[in-house]
Amino acid sequence: MPAINKQITLAARPSGMPKPSDFKLVGSPVPDPGPGEFLVRTLYVSVDPYMRGRMNDVKSYAPPVQIGEVMGAGAVGKVVASQNPKFQAGDVVEGFFGWQQYAISTGTGVRKIDPSLAPISTALGILGMPGLTAYFGLLDIGKPREGETVVVSGAAGAVGSLVGQIAKIKGCRAVGIAGSDEKVAWLSDELGFDAAFNYKTTPNHTAKLAELCPKGIDVYFDNVGGTITDAVFPLINVGARIVVCGQIAQYNADRNETGPRVLWNLIVKQARAEGFLVFQFASRYAEGLTEMAGWLKTGKLKYREQFVDGIENTPRAFIGLLQGENTGKQLVRVAPE
Ligand SMILES: NC(=O)c1ccc[n+]([C@@H]2O[C@H](COP(=O)([O-])OP(=O)(O)OC[C@H]3O[C@@H](n4cnc5c(N)ncnc54)[C@H](OP(=O)(O)O)[C@@H]3O)[C@@H](O)[C@H]2O)c1
After folding, report:
1. Of the candidates 37, 185, 200, 204, which lies 20 to 30 Å from 231 by C-alpha distance?
2. Nearest alpha carbon to residue 166 among 190, 195, 131
3. Phi-psi region of 83 (alpha: psi -120 to 50; beta: other; left: phi over 0)
4. Which atom of ligand 1 is nearest to the CA of 326?
C-alpha cells in the first residue's frame, strides 16, 4: 500500500464553468482505521452535476464544500483494513468516500456490493443513485400510464438514458432531447427511444417536439431547465406531470436567468410540476434496486459507462460532464479492480 493518499480538494469557488485551477491535487498520509472504522481503497469515483452546486457558498439541501476540503463524492472501493466487525478486508463497498484514493469510514451510509450481480461500477450508475433517481422520479412523480408520451431532457446522460427506457417498459412513447447526433443515434438505435433530437442543431425546439409528439406531452422529465424546458411547456396535455429532477442549464449561471413565463400552461392544462430529491425515497431503495437489477438482467435496460483514468484527472472528468462530453454515466477509474 502506498504511504500517500492522493486527494482532490476545492481550491477556489468556481465562477461560471469550473476550471482545472479551481481544484488542487494534494497528498496526505494514508490513514489507519481506528476502533469501529475501516479503510477503503477507492476503485471508481463518481462525478455528478449536483457537485457544481456544492462548490458555491450557498445553503442547500447539503452544506457547501469548504476551500481546501476534499470534494465529496460517491465512490466504489475495496476495504483494505478494518476495525469494524461488519466490514472485512476484501469487501466491495459503495459510499460517500470523496475524490481520493483512500477513505476512512464508520460504515454509515455504506452498502456492500455483490460483484457477482453486475460490474461493481454500476453501483454508481444504473444500480446506484442515478438509477434510483430515474426509477422513482419517473414512476412516483411522473406516474406514466401506458400509451402516454414521455419526453426527457438530458436524455443521453446517466439519469435520462434510463428514464426513456423505463418509460418504454411501461408502454409509453419515449422522446429524448440530447446534445449531439451520436447521442441521438444511441437513444434511437440502441436504447429503443421512439424519437430523439439534437437540441444544439435544432432551431425551433417546440416545433420539433410537436412533430415528434403528435399526441402532445403527458410526462416531461426535466433534467436541464432553461430554454429547453420553456419549449416543452406549450405542448403539455391536460393533466400532464412535469418531473423537475435537475436544472443543469443553470448550474454555472452567476446570475438568475429570466425567461418566458410558462407557468400559465399549468393552469390551462390543469397540470402539475413537482421537484424531488432521490433521498426522499431512501426507505424504498431496495425496491428500486431490485426492479432495476431485474430489468438489467432480462435485457430490458441497457447502460453505458464512460471512464477517465486516474484520480488526478477527476476535475477534467467533472468539467467534461458539465460540457456534455459523456454518454451515459461518467466515472473516474482510480485503480484497477
Ligand atoms: N433530483 C435528484 O435527486 C437528482 C439526482 C441525480 C441527478 N439529478 C439531476 O439530473 C440531471 C442529470 O444528472 P446525471 O447525473 O444523469 O448527469 P448526465 O446527464 O450524465 O450529465 C450531464 C449532461 O447534461 C447535459 N448538459 C450540460 N449542460 C447543459 C445545458 N446547458 N443544457 C442542456 N443540457 C446540458 C450534457 O449533455 P448534452 O450533450 O445533452 O448537453 C451532459 O452530458 C442533472 O440536472 C442532475 O443535477 C437530480
Report:
1. 185
2. 131
3. alpha
4. 43
* 285-297 vs 129-136: helix crossing angle, rounded to 10: 100
The whole-number pLDDT of residue 240 equals: 98
Measured in Å, residue 91 CA sits from the centre of ligand 1 at 31
**Cα distances (Å, whole numbers) of residue 70 to 21, 139, 162, 329:** 15, 35, 30, 22
pLDDT for position 186: 98
Give me the half-sphere count of Cα atoms (radius 13 Å) on the Cβ side of residue 72: 14
The whole-angstrom separation of Cα 337 and Cα 322 is 27
C-alpha torsion 185→158→57→25, nearest 10: -90
Which pLDDT does position 255 carry in this prediction? 84
User: Which pLDDT belongs to residue 323?
Assistant: 98
The preferred substitution site among 48, 124, 135, 159 for testing ligand 1, maximizing ligand atoms within 8 Å of CB, is 159
**Which mutation among 46, 141, 248 tests ligand 1's pocket best, with the greatest number of atoms within 8 A of CB?**
248
CB 18 within 8 A of CB 55: yes
The answer to whether the CB of 300 falls within 8 A of the CB of 162 is: no
Give distance in angstroms: CA of 5 to centre of ligand 1: 30
In the chain, which residues have pLDDT < 50?
none
Contacts of 187 (CB under 8 A, 6+ apart): 155, 156, 161, 164, 176, 178, 193, 196
Tens digits of per-residue pLDDT, 235-245? Answer: 999 999 999 99
Amino acid 333: pLDDT: 98
Instruction: State if residue 308 touches ligand 1 by the CB under 6 angstroms criterion.
Output: no
pTM higher than 0.85, yes or no? yes
